[in-house]
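chain below, 73 aa
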Amino acid sequence: MNATPDMDRMVIDAVRNVRDRFGADGLRDLVALANKELRQAEQATERLTDTHSEHSDIGDTQAWMAYTGDNDR
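prediction:
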């Protein structure tokens, strides 16, 4: 894996751990779940921006997702 300097070490370790334990099938599952989570996070960001100021940040988004339960879909 060609990790870039801007990648968080936790993300790199998570991907490598899945790869090492579950192989290609596990990585496919990880990518599928990550894509689902990405769509939900983007939708939550849009809803947050629509209902609040345009100056939202990731902390606001995470708080909104926790409040609404969007992270459990």
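The CA atoms of residues 27 and 71 lie 21 Å apart. The chain has a mean pLDDT of 84.
thats it, cya
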